[in-house]
Amino acid sequence: MKQRIFLLFVVLVFHSFTLLSQRTVRGKVLTSKEVALEGAAVYLNNTSIGTTTDENGEFELPVGNGNYDLIISFLGFETIQHPLKKDAPNKRLVFTMVAKTNMLDEVVISKKKKMSKEDRAYFMRQFKRNFLGKTNLASECEILNEDVIDFDFDRFSRTLEASVSKPIQIRHKGLGYLITYDLVHFKQTPRNIEYLGYTRYQKLKGSKRKQRKWAKKRQVAYQGSTMHFFRSIVNGKMKEEGFVVDHFKKIPNPARPHDSIIKKARRELGIIASNNRTVTINLGDSNLSTRTKRDSLQDILNKSRLSRTIDIDIKKNLTAKEFTFIQNSVNYISFTDYLKVKYMNEEEEDNYRPGSGKLDYQVSMVTLFVRNSPFDKLGVLMRPLDLFLTGYWGYEKLADALPLDYQPTK
């Protein structure tokens, strides 16, 4: 069964900012005892814009004139998520960090659920595959502190959950980033994969040759991404940028037998196999020999492998105006059923669809859980939980994500 994948690598809400009209946010970070906290990380969620507090617990951070989340984190304290709005007064901020009270309990629980090295290695491979992904870029990511990741597996429901004692450090040698990911939630079931957290990007140092290589790979990662797609809509260049959008719906596959028929066929095949002799079996109004009956039942089981649904086109080659609109200077995406987004300027990776079925373009399917959902001028969904992505966008995970302040080379 294909897994449905929710891409939630930024917690709760994506927020936007613009690189123009920058302002400076100033503040101070204290403990609950009003002691200045030195070395606390202060950054804009899912960007490369960040700093740390000085010996007085103070910080300054240049940011764009927009809406975004300010994240304050320090080991042993609860992470603070502070929404900043572009129209809010530019006043000095003071944050009080609260110590985590359940750290000892978590250690005790972890010891009680200690697993073998073999099991942990197996779950770590699953975690990396579903967190970083299986793309070419995922193979260039290295988790530097695997020991901070703990796993809990429920064998009855086949559910894997991951938790962390401190943020995960990821060296992305493909894109040239050190990624700090403060994991809030990771859950993998036979049907779904969900993860969310706070992300900070820091550019790695390297030679000019490496910098050029990273810049090229960032450009490739950007092309065909959701960020690229929504930015192309904002700029009125969706088709020029290589995107083709079709509107479709799913209906039951008429070539696939009903589940009740499949179940009956499987049961009767079992009876024939156990009898192992020639009999006459009544099938409706006709009588068939055992061999003929067996072939008929096997044909039903062969058809059971067909997809449960098929796609019916409502309209092909949509314009952006047919599934988006602008209200009060805010862009919205709005449609019924499903959208099929094809990016025509880049082929699929071998890891995605190996063999002769590989396409020379990328296809993603989009479902909208609400009537409409806003996105900003930088191509970022402001309520990412409104959309459900499968296909190629479901295949690409954290390893192929870029910071929100990324700008492609023109």
Distance between the termini: 41 Å
Helix percent band:
10-25%
Based on CA inertia axes, which overall geometry fits? Answer: globular
List segments where confidence is low: pLDDT < 50 over at least 5 consecutive residues.
Answer: 4-21, 103-112, 283-288
How confident is the prediction overall: mean pLDDT?
85
> What is the structural class?
alpha+beta
Provide structural commentary.
With 410 residues, this protein is α+β, with helices and mostly antiparallel strands. The chain has four domains: 75 residues, Immunoglobulin-like; 104 residues, no CATH class; 120 residues, no CATH class; 47 residues, no CATH class. It is built from seven helices and 24 strands. Strands 1, 9, 10, 11, 12, 13 and 14 form a seven-stranded mixed sheet that branches. Strands 18-15-21-22-24 form a five-stranded antiparallel sheet. The protein has a four-stranded antiparallel sheet with strand order 4-3-6-7, with no helix packed on it. α5 runs antiparallel to α6. The radius of gyration is 26 Å and the shape is globular. About 8% of the residues have low confidence. It comes from Pseudotenacibaculum haliotis. This is Carboxypeptidase-like regulatory domain-containing protein. It holds the Pfam family CarbopepD_reg_2.
